[in-house]
């Protein structure tokens, strides 16, 4: 069992124009409240987060505040969500919410995205369940 990590380091970030373009090109997205979340399975076992926020959300101070709140939500709650995805969160104009509200919106969208990807590739979901259920070979 891996210990819970409450850090948000370099390996937890989605970096680079090509990484964002790849997630966007997968065209798998759901929205909840002011958040539009795109996802694509990744090769690592944990979630990675990328944020996008437009100028319509306010000045730089306000945009940075909204990004900090979403990052903090991700940092605190990611252990409760299914892993193995690259997420791109587009923040739309809205009044600032509490971290619990952002957590509810992210949990809802990440859960639906996970179900969508499992439906698209049921063979890998079944093989993962079988590997976990079968005892290790001696």
Order of helices and strands, N to C? HEEEHEHH
CATH class: Alpha Beta
Largest sheet descriptor: 4 strands, mixed
Instruction: Report the principal-axis shape.
Output: globular
Number of domains: 1
The N- to C-terminal Cα distance equals: 20 Å
How are the strands ordered across the major sheet?
1-2-4-3
Low-confidence stretches: 129-136
What assembly state would you assign to the polypeptide chains in this entry? single chain
Describe the fold and architecture.
By secondary structure, this protein is an alpha+beta fold. It is 44% helix and 17% strand. It has helices at residues 17-25, 60-77, 99-120, 122-133, and strands at residues 29-32, 35-41, 48-53, 85-91. A hairpin with a 2-residue loop joins β1 and β2. Mean pLDDT is 82; it is low at 129-136.
Main features:
138 residues, alpha+beta, Ribosomal Protein S5, domain 2, globular, disordered C terminus
């Amino acid at each position: 069992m891996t210990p819970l990590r409450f850090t948000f380091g370099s390996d937890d970030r989605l970096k680079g124009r090509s990484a964002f373009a790849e997630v966007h090109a997968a065209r798998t997205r759901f929205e909840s409240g002011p958040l539009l979340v795109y996802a694509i399975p990744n090769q690592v076992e944990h979630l990675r987060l990328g944020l996008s926020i437009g100028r319509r959300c306010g000045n730089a101070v306000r945009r940075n505040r909204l990004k900090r709140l979403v990052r903090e939500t991700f940092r605190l709650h990611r252990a409760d969500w299914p892993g193995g995805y690259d997420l791109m969160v587009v923040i739309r104009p809205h009044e600032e919410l509490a971290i619990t509200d952002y957590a509810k919106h992210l949990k809802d969208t990440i859960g639906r995205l996970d179900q969508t990807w499992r439906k698209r590739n049921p063979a890998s979901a079944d093989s993962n369940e079988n590997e976990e259920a079968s005892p290790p070979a001696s």
